[in-house]
Amino acid sequence: MANHRKKPKIHSVKFNVLMNMLLTTSQMLFPLITLPYVSRILSTFGTGAVAYVQSVVLYFSMVALLGIQNYGIKVCAMVRDDIVELSKVVKELLVILLVSTSIVFAVYLLSIFLIPTFSQQRTLFLIFSVGFWLSSFGVEWFYQAIEQYGYITVRNIVFKFIGLILMFLFVHQSSDYIVYGITVLVAGYGMNILNLLRLRKLVDFSIRQRLEYKEHLKAMFWYSIASISSGMYTQTDIVALGFLGNINMVGLYQLVAKIKNVLIKAVNSVGNVMLPRISYYKANGDKQAIINLMAKNVNFIGVVSGALIGGTVLCSDSVVQLMGGKDFSGSVVPLMLAVPAILFSSLNIALGNELIADSREREWAILNVIGFTCSVVYAITFIYFFGVAGAAISNSLTELTVLVLRCSRGKGFIRQILPQTDYHKIGIVSVVSVFIALLLKSQLAFTPGFISLIVNGCCFMGIYCIGLVLAHELFVAEMIHSIIKR
């Protein structure tokens, strides 16, 4: 039976990167606008309660998703040119999700009524149960697989804007943290409703096909382990702080985590579009294209991470003052300790994408399980001795541990991409730039705030950019050459 559904247009990598950068910009602007307002209205308790519930819900969501957020991208990208086969794969994955989400949701409901720490925020947990289901059936993996980054970007920006309006309309006092949780839910998950409605235009549910689940379940086994452990180890710091500390400590640390996560998203604006394209190249046997793409991504990560880490360390007091206010002064040191994770996490994502595309899911999963185990040990140890700062240390150490393990297991591939990168130049320029900027900061001695952030940030970025140009760093040299050529 002929199928007349129109195939979505597949744009170039440059277009996808541009769209993802716009998406990342919106994801950065939303916290930048909301954090200063929410932090001052809700203080550490209100923001801490919402952040804690979000982290716990994410733990359950990771289990329910069974790694489909990565597995789905790969298998759908490989058959995206065949609408019949693509429809079959999507339907199979949706049925698997329905079963897994139903089982995990039952455990989730029992937990929020039986675990005392959860019961204290039962209302928030029940509200976020809507997000739990929307997370499972948001089918973001499908739209990423067919590289619909224009649609993804527009949809995200619209719902971020809706969430922003709701927040300013309804969050006015410290007791409004429940309402704030609802606005977070709308901004973060509301767009998934549109995903489901639009899915019928791109996937033919009318085709009668024999659905097969066995092969998916076998292939998804390692994806599930990897995704669950990875999702958990990135949230262990907040969840452990909630159990070992208190909600106010979580409030101090959630500011750090949000700033760090925004910066990681900025770095991964390129990396996030790589998995479907790498999977496509892999399916077509184009190994050199994979190496070239990965090398550019790694070099980009190095350049942008160097700028963000150096700038944040230098201006951490001003950033916290602007984002949180005086109640969050205890977040300054943890922020400085957390930002190295920007580089480690971004490289982990890039190398993890290569392992997935290369069908080395078992290795990817084992490394993530080790990372999760280390995150628990690090969190318990460092939070016990250093409190909020210990949570930041544990997160950075976890990402570094996983990165070292990935590099040791992928020596051959790394040797192929390193000659196309300038990691040594980036490292030297970053350290020298921070040192010079610190000397200038000590002479200027501005009070932490907006003026200090602008002056010290501009000084550092100017020194850093000049250093990269003088060092003839590959990424910067290519950008300059491209501008001159135009």
Automatic annotation (TrEMBL):
Cell compartments where the protein resides: Membrane
Membrane protein topology class: Multi-pass membrane protein
Lineage: superkingdom: Bacteria
KW Hydrolase (keyword) present: no
InterPro entries: Polysacc_synth (IPR002797), PolySynth_Transporter (IPR052556)
Transmembrane segments: 21-39, 51-72, 93-118, 124-143, 150-171, 177-197, 298-320, 332-352, 364-380, 450-476
Keywords assigned: Membrane, Transmembrane, Transmembrane helix
One GO cellular component, as annotated: membrane
Protein name, entry field: Polysaccharide biosynthesis protein
